[in-house]
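quick one, 366 residues, struct below
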Amino acid sequence: MDFSFSEEQLAAVEAAQAVFSGVAADAVPSPALVPGAVAEDFDRPLWRKLAEADLLGLVLDEAHGGAGLDPVALCLVLREAGAVLARVPLLETCAAALAVQRYGPPELRDRLLPGVVRGTLVLTVAAHGRTGHDPAELAVTARRDGSAWVLDGTHTAVPWAQHADRILVPAVTPDGHPVLALVPRDSADLADQVSTSGELFAEVRLDGVRVPTEDVITTDGAWDWLRRLLATGTCALALGLGSTVLRLTGEYTGKREQFGHPIATFQAVSMQVADRYIDLRAMEATLWQAASDWRLDPVAVAVAKIWASEGVRRVVQTAQHLHGGFGADTDYVLHRYHAWAKQLELSLGPAAMHEEALGDLLAAEA
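---
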């Protein structure tokens, strides 16, 4: 299958590489060395650079100041972000903004999207529900009350919530219909949580929070589509992370000698690295298959999640094994990639769960 990229998509990659070239993956303290979060805020200077490079509006329409590109372009930029462990809410903001553009009313689009493009409006998404296992929309109830919706419930592990201007919250109406509500950060009660990667997350508690009707998206399919976009973007982050880890492994095994020879020349080592290279190529092929369709086909997304969840875990485990004790040294960056890989794996969920979902989808199509 041909996954050749357009000139516009390649230009986005070039711009992203220029912005991320100055990012150091170990610029903040290691999660292994601090009891709480690694930093109080996300990387604001990097966020401003992304806005100046027109990368925050990459997938938004030109009418709002964006470039009008597709999810493939977003995933290409996310791949570069994952390669350097960029500490910015790029996936969450772009995915939420794209959902607003695709499913939100015109007034909401005109009011919010220009701020996203300029980098003055930061969005995040509560995508993990109350426990991280149940459907996220069931964690919060939404009922109409005059000109507003009233929200009650709790979402856990919401990234960047303490510093986002709006939190896009999935909720369910009394008749079982999913909606998406844009909740101002100050309207929610936030309890700090620390992710596996050491970043500051939040438990978002909503107790009778009123959201104006014009800030609630009620269009059928909006949440399902956004959930698939978030999963596809997470696969792109995992691909970028895994590519860097494999490069680090190749560099280390090429110079680390044992019995007078670089360990990369040993058959057992080279076979393990080759297997991980195959994992990355499978992650890449399934990612572009999922992202290349604006509908984000559920079957393609499920396959991409299977490979990303398993692949990123295997790549990092092999890297740690081949680095030996050096891989756990907090003066070396690999342990940071290991922590981020575990966070991405947990965000995606276990491959077995996606395989079961894939079987259900295929059975339904049959």
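The first helix runs from residue 7 to 20.
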